[in-house]
Design brief:
This protein has five helices and ten strands, in the order E-H-E-E-H-E-E-E-H-E-E-H-E-H-E. It has 211 residues and is an alpha+beta fold. The strands form two sheets. The protein has a five-stranded mixed sheet with strand order 2-3-1-4-10, covered by helices on one side.
Length: 211
């Protein structure tokens, strides 16, 4: 992921540590104890490339920095590829989904565009266990979709499997993103025209801006 100095319209409202020097010093301190972390400079002095052992590893670092008063933008996560003998290799995950049998069709359907290959299907009473080998990049955003599709009844686990030849492009976000450019109050009637363009949540907005 890229850690970027926040240049959004709401910059400076949530944190006190906002400069590139603040962020770089904090990442340097983290490197002393977090042996799995890698930090690289980029052509842009306000952007740092941070590599770790998955989304959870990086999200814990981001949350710790947020609680310490840091404010920044972060890019979407990307997997780290390898190249061996001129071939592009990508990390694969062994994915296990325990789901009620009525949802198995929709779960299998979701794995197709994400290049997931089913290797086993085991009935277990009222639930069914589906096992896939899937590119690690295919897991990004998958858990939320599965939980929504199954009404929160699915159990999703995965572990590293191996590196394999690049499986091809995976479709990105289907819907756009709605971004508020100003703070203020509004009414339900003002929101109604926007409802045709996207969905809204009453949950608090994260103080980190997705780049």
């Amino acid at each position: 992921m890229n850690f970027i100095v926040n240049n959004s319209p709401f910059a400076g409202r949530e944190g006190k540590m906002v400069t590139s020097r603040n962020i770089r010093e904090r990442l340097d301190r983290e490197l002393r104890t977090n042996v799995s972390l890698r930090v690289e400079d980029t052509a842009n002095p306000d952007t740092f490339k941070v590599s770790g052992r998955g989304e959870l590893h990086l999200s814990i670092l981001i949350e710790n920095m947020r609680r310490e008063g840091f404010e920044m933008a972060v890019s979407k996560p990307e997997v780290i590829f390898r190249e061996e003998e001129g071939k592009k290799l990508e990390p694969m995950e062994y994915l296990v989904v325990d789901v009620p049998s009525e949802y198995q069709g929709s779960i299998i359907e979701k794995m197709g565009p994400r290049k997931g290959e089913m290797v086993a299907m085991n009935p277990m009473g009222d639930t069914i266990r589906l096992e896939f080998i899937i590119p690690a990049r295919g897991l990004i955003g998958l858990r939320g979709e599965v939980m929504t599709e199954t009404r929160g009844t699915a159990v999703v686990t995965h572990t590293f499997h191996d590196y394999a030849p690049y499986k091809g492009d995976i479709p990105g976000r289907k819907n756009g993103v709605l971004i508020a450019m100003e703070l203020g109050e509004t009414t339900a009637t003002r929101w109604m025209p926007c409802s045709r363009e996207g969905s809204f949540s009453s949950e608090p907005v994260s103080r980190f801006t997705a780049a």
